[in-house]
From TrEMBL:
Sequence ranges assigned to domain HTH deoR-type in this UniProt record: 3-58
One MF term in the entry's GO annotations: DNA binding
InterPro entries in the record: Carb_Metab_HTH_regulators, DeoR-like_C, DeoR_HTH, NagB/RpiA_transferase-like, Tscrpt_reg_HTH_DeoR_CS, WH-like_DNA-bd_sf, WH_DNA-bd_sf
Name of the protein in question: DeoR/GlpR family DNA-binding transcription regulator
Keywords linked to the UniProt accession: DNA-binding, Transcription, Transcription regulation
Database matches in Pfam families: DeoRC, HTH_DeoR
Gene3D superfamilies: 3.40.50.1360, Winged helix-like DNA-binding domain superfamily/Winged helix DNA-binding domain
Organism, scientific name: Clostridium aestuarii
Length: 254
């Protein structure tokens, strides 16, 4: 079992039971006590749990782990701002890759009003449904396994299909941006989809509201030098904006 798979199971147990013992995890994963301790140390460093004698407890309920429907209701004003700005980097007849994040759904609503012909590659069932009335759009679903709570398609089939395309611009939703740790997220199933979309795209635009800056989530998507720009909202603090731009990162907001 991969470390990332163990992390996911540990967090699932904590969400259900609020605590977990090292002894239980060693039996569940069939690994040594030292391996489990390293896993717990890593998750504690990421701020996802608190280690206690003999195990760990849930540190807090993190909004980054909320369902799609819950996240959809968060930061609505900021997402609308990001959508308007991001749409400005699209031109007629472009090909665009979009992951299943909630901000991409808002971008699609803006694009529908501005463009007659686009090619959209996505693993989002919500985006595909939103574009069902756009006859001149070419909408390509990645295929794969349906992840019901995220209204998305994931897995090896989706990843393999993405590799067949050459895309102009990818819009990627993320949960963390850090000068040290790069671009991060917490969705295990979406991670490889995001990586593949970045890999096949000539231009990569990261979408993140201002609260995501200087934060690190569980899974690394890519380094900052693999992205062309970050689109955020107008609430980003000036000192944070200047810190990133001084380091050669293009940050754009309204």
């Amino acid at each position: 079992m991969l470390a990332q798979e163990r992390y996911e199971q540990i967090l699932s147990i904590l969400e259900k039971d609020n605590s977990v013992k090292v002894s239980k995890l060693t039996k569940l994963f069939n690994v040594s006590i030292e391996t489990v301790r390293r896993d717990l140390e890593y998750l504690e460093k990421e701020g996802l749990l608190k280690r206690v004698y003999g195990g760990a407890v849930l540190k807090e309920v993190n909004s980054k782990q909320l369902s799609f429907q819950s996240r959809k209701k968060e930061y609505i004003e900021e997402k609308n701002e990001i959508a308007e700005v991001a749409a400005g980097f699209v031109t007629e007849d472009q090909s665009i890759a979009m992951d299943a994040g909630t901000t991409n759904l808002e971008i699609i609503k803006v694009l529908k009003k501005k463009f007659e012909r686009l090619t959209i590659l996505t693993n989002s069932l919500m985006i595909a449904n939103e574009l069902a009335d756009m006859d001149k759009y070419t909408v390509i679903l990645t295929g794969g396994i349906i992840k019901n709570d995220e209204f998305s398609l994931v897995g090896a089939i989706a990843e393999s299909n993405i590799s067949n395309f050459n895309i102009d611009t990818a819009f990627i939703n993320v949960n963390g941006i850090s000068l040290k740790d790069g671009i991060t997220d917490c969705m295990f199933e979406q991670l490889q989809i995001q990586k593949k979309m970045i890999e096949v795209s000539q231009k990569v635009i990261i979408l993140a509201d201002s609260s995501k800056f200087d934060t690190v989530s569980l899974l690394k998507i890519c380094d900052l030098d693999q992205v062309n720009m970050i689109v955020t909202d107008s609430k980003l603090k000036q000192n944070v904006f200047e810190k990133y731009t001084r380091n050669g990162i293009e940050v754009v907001n309204k």
